[in-house]
Amino acid sequence: MSLLELSGVTRSVVLPDDRTLEILRGIDLTVDAGEHVSIVGRSGTGKSTLLNILGLLDAPTSGEYVLDGVPIGRLSGRARARRRGTDFGFVFQQFNLLQGRTALENVVAPLLYARGRQFWQRRTLAAEMLERVGLGDRLDTRPEKLSGGEQQRVAIARALVRVPRVILADEPTGALDVDTGSEVMDLLDTIARENGSALIAITHDLAVASRASRQFRLADGVLTPIAISARSAGSLGALGAPGDQPSGPGPGAAGRPAVSGDDQAEHVARPLVPAHGAAPGEGDAA
Q: Are 211 and 185 in contact (CB under 8 A)?
């Protein structure tokens, strides 16, 4: 049985003029424990909405979400919040650390809501996790004194200190340079594998996405399996969606140049199945 499963999940909102905006359209996704899955897509395609649904921060308009055999739609708000705190770890692009608090205090924060050993030994567990991510000598350092890579390591330690079953990473390397981003992904991969946690990474960066055992593209609210080659690094522009018009050279993710036409031949994402009649594009939802 899969750790989590989405079946026919949709998300829509009613606009002030009474029109309905469809953000997600019939999403089907299964993820097993210990699996690494990546989802790529341009801005405005519904990636954040999908991440919020996966992390129990939002609820689908229709369809079913089953987590570890339990239909999420049947849970009370309190039960959903409890599962969100115990089963999920969130890693964000902008770190979202508590300013004015030390690295140790930031990692301790989630354990304040824990029970039993995790609560009573919270400082010890937080220190051990910071040691695990290579910051054992920076326990008393505040975020403003840490580099970007170090801040992201603190954020990873905070996300993983409760040993979540699912790690949701939203553009985890987006604010980092190439080398630091690679180190951060190595760290996420290693700890997720050691803990047996599922890792779901949402990214614009094909080099990051290529690390996953399975990759998907989200376009126009439709999730499509794709295959990404890791032979060269590139940004989402290498996907070459039908109907997209080149807009000239521009920077890629994490400061990399956009992939050129020559590079596209070596770093290509190929759809594995039809996207249910929807042509890939930029989408119309945030």
A: yes
Residue type, 142: R
d(CA 128, CA 230): 33
pTM of the model: 0.77
Both tokens of 96, joined, read 């979202």
Give the Cα separation of 107 and 141 in Å (integer).
12
Residue 142 burial (C-beta neighbours within 10 Å; 0-12, 13-18, 19+): middle
- Measured CA to CA in angstroms, residue 270 lies from 213, 222, 226 at distances of 15, 15, 5
- Can you give the pLDDT at residue 239? 60
Q: CATH topology for 4-96+165-271?
A: Rossmann fold (3.40.50)
| pLDDT for position 231 | 54
d(CA 229, CA 36): 16
Task: Give first-to-last CA distance, the chain, whole Å.
Answer: 32
- Classify 117 as helix, strand or coil: helix
- Per-residue confidence (pLDDT) for residue 251, from 0 to 100: 39
